[in-house]
Amino acid sequence: MAVKFSNNASALLDGAITNSATSITLDDVSEFPVLAGGDYTYVTLANVAATKIEIIKVTAINTGTKVLTVVRAQDNTSAAAFDDGDICELRITAALLTAHVEALVSGENTLAEDDDVNLTSPGDGALLIYDTGTATWRDAA
Length: 141
Known about the structure:
The protein is mainly beta. Helix content is 9%, strand content 34%. It contains one helix and nine strands.
């Protein structure tokens, strides 16, 4: 089980959804990450005018039917109804970053040996330092 990312994933809703829908059909899912059992990602739904935004947790993507299986109203957003043609994008969100950092610390996600990570933790000023296979929190000072 791991949080997954992809660059610039964006698609349009292929049909309207209610605020309680847990299956969402898109016009294209090719840019979204491949999710295996237990993997997930967070995506943002927005109407065309960007006056309504909801972050959802995607737990499965059926590439054949282009259907996302989702958990609604994530990261302090409320579930809302959206229209056909509204936007679904993988954006950087607090939920996505928090899940990734937690997975790194727990060992669920790993980085390549040459990767450097320097993320400020929310609220306490500590830094997460990844060095030669080990992620550790250090005081920013």
